[in-house]
Design brief:
By secondary structure, this protein is mainly beta. It has a single domain, classed as Beta Barrel (Porin), CATH 2.40.160. 7% of the residues lie in helices and 55% in strands. The strands form two sheets. A twelve-stranded antiparallel beta barrel has the order 1-4-5-6-7-8-9-10-11-12-13-14. A two-stranded antiparallel sheet has the order 2-3. The two termini are 33 Å apart.
């Protein structure tokens, strides 16, 4: 049964509308930091989650990540995520990069601040949904532009099939460009192993919404992924293989999370 929105939800809907208007009023860029398809679910009221993220760029023809050579790059992030309510969670990320070829220093490059609000309870509507808003504050020596990113977090579970889809809108606050459109999606099957989901994930960016890039200049990738849940421990891992000239050729990703 579809339930009506309560007063608190109406307030959150107004907040969502304000966030969207703010994003559309800013200039943009769209750079996915990590290869993760987000769920609207996470830590609930009073729960804390600590995560460690890595992306390994095993092979790529793309030039730079910030001011570092992208080929052979390792990206690391430490995340603290806390449930303010059963539906609303906030998070802080500290991002680091390590270039394995040449200068191998481990560098702090930026901070990220994230808010995720789940719009309704599980199975209350046709699909589960949430709103993701992230503010990126890089070091000036790495990137001089702050960014804001907004995603719709859509999820549907049908027996052993789990589908997630995140339309992504990214904006660079200090540039005069338009805003960009991207996507993150995952299709998983949970009937093979207990507490595990295996499937395919895909990530991409079309470029500026007002004038999409030609296909060869867009970024698109696809690859296998696996999600594991063992008590309070979650593990998300997989590979991505580039489909266009402007995509990284091979990237390995992993996320380890522990919930208190």
């Amino acid at each position: 049964m579809i339930r009506p929105w309560d007063g608190h939800s109406r307030i959150m809907r107004r907040c969502v509308a304000v966030c969207v208007c703010v994003v559309l009023a800013l200039p943009t860029t769209l750079h996915a930091r990590h290869l993760k398809v987000y769920s609207p679910f996470g830590p609930e009221l009073g729960e804390l989650e600590v995560s460690y993220w890595t992306d390994t760029f095993a092979e790529t023809d793309r030039d730079l990540s910030g001011n570092l050579d992208r080929d052979g790059l390792l990206r690391h992030s430490v995340e603290l995520e806390y449930g303010l309510t059963d539906k609303w969670k906030i998070a802080y990320y500290a991002d680091f990069e390590h270039q394995t070829q040449g200068d191998d220093r481990f560098r702090y490059v930026q901070s990220r601040f994230e808010s995720i609000y789940r719009l309704w309870d599980h199975d209350e509507q046709l699909f589960d949904a949430g709103l993701y808003v992230e503010f990126v504050a890089p070091r000036n020596s790495y990137d001089k532009h702050n960014e804001i990113e907004v995603k719709a977090l859509l999820e549907k579970l049908v027996q052993d099939i789990l589908v997630r889809f995140n339309p992504v809108f990214g904006r660079e606050i200090s540039s005069g460009d338009g805003f960009e459109l991207g996507y993150e999606t995952g299709w998983y099957y949970g009937g093979v192993f207990d507490a595990a989901w295996v499937g395919l994930e895909a990530f991409g960016s079309f470029g500026l919404i007002r004038s999409f890039e030609r296909l060869r200049n867009q970024s698109h990738s696809i690859g296998p992924a696996a999600l594991f849940n063992i008590g309070p421990l979650e593990f998300d891992t997989g590979f991505q293989f580039g489909l266009t000239n402007n995509s990284d050729d091979v990237v390995f990703k992993s996320v380890i999370a522990f919930e208190f």
